[in-house]
Design a protein that fits this description.
mainly beta, 10-stranded antiparallel sheet
Length: 170
């Protein structure tokens, strides 16, 4: 079915055609010097890879990405071990935007051993690093315990440390 312009004058479509505009055409419409998708990224942010410095682990970084929207930083890091590569409290550098020292950050940590997920807690070690703690539920109340070579389990090949979070940049 042919496309008919709804208005006889003053209506210009892109590209000038008698076929309907599709999403591909809309994504290439110029808005000033940027395309529509670039303009959307400017408001919502685009995910960017980064290489965090690691503390007390020599694990390879499977993926590390962040997005900055205004002063808010969202990030995630996945480490997949290739052996017993944890020697103490694991620290992971935040994306290249220091955390506001009074920021109320929210960090989630998952410690995975052969498919079993152990709950963890991320704590700001500095304004540039999140430290990974395991939850110890042996007592009346759950408390945090620093990761070590044997906490929360003995680390081995294919085990993972997954950290994600949100914080306000300085």
């Amino acid at each position: 079915m042919a496309y008919t312009r709804p208005y006889a004058s003053g209506f210009v479509d892109y590209p000038l055609t008698t076929t309907p505009i599709n999403s591909t055409a809309l994504n290439t419409i110029d808005v000033g010097v940027k395309t529509v998708s670039d303009t959307v990224d400017a408001f919502t942010g685009a995910w960017t890879a980064y290489t965090p410095t690691l503390t007390n682990t020599t694990s390879p970084i499977t993926v590390a990405r962040y997005v900055k929207i205004g002063k808010t930083i969202h990030f995630y890091v996945v480490l997949t071990l290739t052996g017993a590569q944890v020697s103490g409290l694991v620290g992971i550098a935040l994306p290249p935007f220091a955390m506001l020292s009074t920021s109320s950050a929210n960090f989630d940590v998952k410690l995975i051993d052969a498919g079993v997920v152990y709950a963890g807690v991320g704590v700001a070690g500095t304004t540039a690093r999140v430290d990974c703690y395991a939850l110890n539920a042996a007592g009346t109340y759950a408390v945090v315990a620093a990761t070590t070579a044997a906490i929360p389990f003995t680390w081995a090949t294919t085990d993972q440390i997954i950290v994600s979070g949100t914080y306000e940049s300085a």
